[in-house]
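Lab channel / #folding
Pinned by the channel admin:
"Please post every new chain as: sequence first, then the structure tokens as a reply. Keep commentary short and put observations after the output so the thread stays searchable."

First post following the new format, from NK:
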Amino acid sequence: MPKRQPRLSRLHPGRSGLELALGDLEAAIMRIFWDASEPMCVEDVRAALEAGGRKAAYTTVMTTLARLHSKGLLERRMKGRAYHYRAAMSEAEFGESVSRAALDGLLDAFTEPAVAYFVEALGARDPAQLDLLAELIERKKREKQT
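Reply from TO:
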């Protein structure tokens, strides 16, 4: 089964974590869903936000849930007269999707500088990871030969 790809319009380079790919409220709501065990309606999400110290109007939450659904991050099902939402992917799957989209964009536009900077940044942050990268490159080369 192919991996689900969220429809994200852009990344926000000055931010970190979920806020790199989502707005502040969207990120807060997705954290709620990733911690939840059951689908939730708008009021459930609004109450969870408020319990976390963040106030948001019912209509704002409703609009944000609809936006996250249209981006492919939430699934929804009509239950009675209200939609109940749940996460369409795990936080790890979301992180992988964002990483893939960002790297694909960089490699499409700036292959050589993107690869060079990746190696430089990886070496500066954790030199031991360069050995892992070299192993992965060698493995990929062997796969291509067979």
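NK: The beta strands are 74-79, 82-87.
TO: also worth noting, The chain is about 60% helix and 10% strand.
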